[in-house]
Amino acid sequence: MSSQRRKAFTIEEKGAIICRLENGESNSSLAKEFGMGHSTISMIFKNKNRIKQSFNSNVLKPKRLRKSRRENVEALIQWFKIMRNKRIPISDPMLQEKANVFTARFGILDFNCSASWISRFKVRHNIVAGKIIGESSSVDQNSTTNWLTSVWPNLRRQFSDDEIFNADETGLFYKLMPDKTLKFKGENCSGGKLSKYRITVMVAVNMSGTEKKKLLIIGKSQKPRCFSSVKSLPVDYANNRRAWMT
Q1: In angstroms, rounded to a whole number, what is the distance separating the alpha carbons of residues 9 and 17?
Q2: In 10 A of CB 176, how many CB atoms?
Q3: What does pTM read for this prediction?
Q4: Which domains can be identified in the chain, with CATH numbers?
Q5: Does residue 219 sit in helix, strand or coil?
Q6: Which one of 24, 145, 160, 243 counts the least CB within 10 Å of its CB?
């Protein structure tokens, strides 16, 4: 008996074999090239319709075609394609929750989507994680370095940690979509139009962390409707027509 280990081909490799057979290459030449029996080549060609379907659906890595017994698998992949076409970011928990929604819709009682099932689902359908390309800006590193080396040491010696505060403003885009998503491998992962709804938040805390100043929130409205029944706020609120700090 031969000790040579039987090679398992991916769907992509099987698709290439089918293509070569359809282009006129013989079964025997391919069997010799790949070191397999004629019957294996014949079996691949016999299942060409299923293999082509998986190849065209971007399922390239699995080495065996398994018939899904659950309708929610096909529904989930179709939903995923629709969401990606709309450039909507998708995470593992979203995918898991949607799988459970389809499970309930189809009346499947013996299935509960787990994190490991989602991991296998992503491998089968060639889905990977990617970062959405968005707007970016750079900081002048020379100015920062010069300030830290020439100005900061003299200031630092004059004050204790309790007396040194760091304050900064930041924009809170409360309707902004995530910048990471699941996607098909090789898919161009570009984002859609970014939401501009925002407030500005001013934060301040001393170096020792013993004193944190009350947050300053800057919104667009002078008297927001959501504040109508609020008697006191845990933050200081101010308004600017663009929600900017002046």
Answers
A1: 10
A2: 14
A3: 0.38
A4: 1-66 (1.10.10.10), 71-125 (1.10.10), 164-239 (no CATH)
A5: strand
A6: 24
Buried b or exposed e, range 39-78, using 16+ CB within 10 angstroms: ebbeebbeebeebeebbeebbbebeeeeeeeeebbebbbe
Q: Which two tokens stand for residue 183?
A: 């996607």
Q: What is the DSSP string of 109-148?
A: -S----HHHHHHHHHHTTEEEEEPB-------HHHHHHII
Q: Are 244 and 196 in contact (CB under 8 A)?
A: no
How far is it, in rounded angstroms, from Cα 93 to Cα 195?
Answer: 23
Can you tell me the distance from the alpha carbon of 180 to that of 170, in angstroms, rounded to the nearest whole number? 21
- 219 CB-contact burial (10 Å; exposed 0-12 / middle 13-18 / buried 19+): middle
Q: What tens digit of pLDDT does each residue of 56-106 get?
A: 555 544 545 444 445 678 888 888 888 888 778 888 888 988 888 888 887
Q: Quick one: tokens of 24? A: 């006129």
Among the listed residues 63, 50, 47, 49, the one whose alpha carbon sits nearest the alpha carbon of residue 12:
63
User: Which is nearest to 221 in space by CA: 206, 196, 190, 199?
Assistant: 199
